[in-house]
Amino acid sequence: MNIVEYLSSLPAEKYHYLPNKGNAGDSLISYAAYQLFNESNLNYEKVKLEGKWSYKVAESLEGKNIIFDGGGSIIDLYKRDANYLEKYHREAKKVVILPQTINGNEQLLASLDSNVDILCRELTSFEYVKSVVTKANVFLMDDMAFSIDVDKTLAAKSLYSNTEYFFSRLPKQRFYLLLNYLKRAKNGSLKTKVLNSFRKDIESTSIEIPEDNIDVSYIFAFYDFSEGAVQEVVQRMLRFLNNFEIVNTNRLHICIASALLGKKVNFYANSYYKNESVYNFSIKDRLPNVAWMG
């Protein structure tokens, strides 16, 4: 079963979607989710938060159907989405966890009842979750981002109401770094068609970071996860990536987006198994323009 078939199989009821508000890779996942919800004629609305920039839920979800976003947020390195799941899985009518990488959280996973569907995006997580759950339903399918049509996305009309003010909330160091790259891309003065885009956060490795590195997922992170805003992030990120021919990265969604654009991608490991496991499950036999670098 793929994600389209899964969503189409859900009962014709209302679903409350809780995005994973994170970096631009998470925006890519949410953009795919909105697209697939619409294509599947799913009756949904985004969970109300206390503000556009807040993570705190501002409505009761008791007795409702909840869709948790996909990604890599239910692992030992991060706590927020596990806390959400711990809080809401008992009071919800049904919980759907879109394709995730999952580890740790053994007690939480074992406590989930049959009203919870867990979609894993690679085999390592799938086998782990299957080994610890007692009642929840477990599925294996691709990361949401693989469903995106990049040509259609680039051609889509903007849904965001204030595009000229879009990056005003970015910290200055991110804004000016991005502005410099965009100017260079526009006037053709980029000296190379090679992009180095390595992460420097909690999932980074000991790999030497090139001097010209630009962490695209960090630079384009925008914490408004409304449908129009995530489309704006994704379009701007794809246009930026289109300036290059070769992409070196250990960011999963920079790899996926670049590969779907037809770029040659040299894909490196992150700090745990996520990148390699997604590569083996979804990329190796599908996208020959991606080389696994370990």
CATH uppermost class of the largest domain: Alpha Beta
Helix content: 25-40%
Look at the structure and give the mean pLDDT.
Answer: 91
Largest sheet: 7 strands, parallel
Low-confidence parts: none
CATH topology of the largest domain: Rossmann fold
**Domain module count:** 2
Oligomer: single chain
Structural class given helices, strands, pairing?
Answer: alpha/beta
Q: Assess the beta-strand content as a share of residues.
A: 15-25%
Name the helix and strand elements from N-terminus to C-terminus, one letter apiece.
HEHEEEHEHEHEHHEHHEHEHE
The total of helices stands at 11
CATH arch. level architecture of the largest domain = 3-Layer(aba) Sandwich
Number of strands: 11
Distance between the termini: 29 Å
Note the overall shape: globular
**Measured on Cα atoms, how large is the radius of gyration?**
19 Å
Could you give a quick summary of the protein structure above?
The chain has 294 residues and is of the alpha/beta class. It has helices at residues 3-9, 24-39, 80-88, 106-111, 123-132, 150-155, 172-186, 216-219, 227-241, 252-260, 274-283, and strands at 14-18, 43-46, 65-68, 71-74, 94-102, 116-120, 137-140, 194-197, 246-249, 264-267, 290-292.
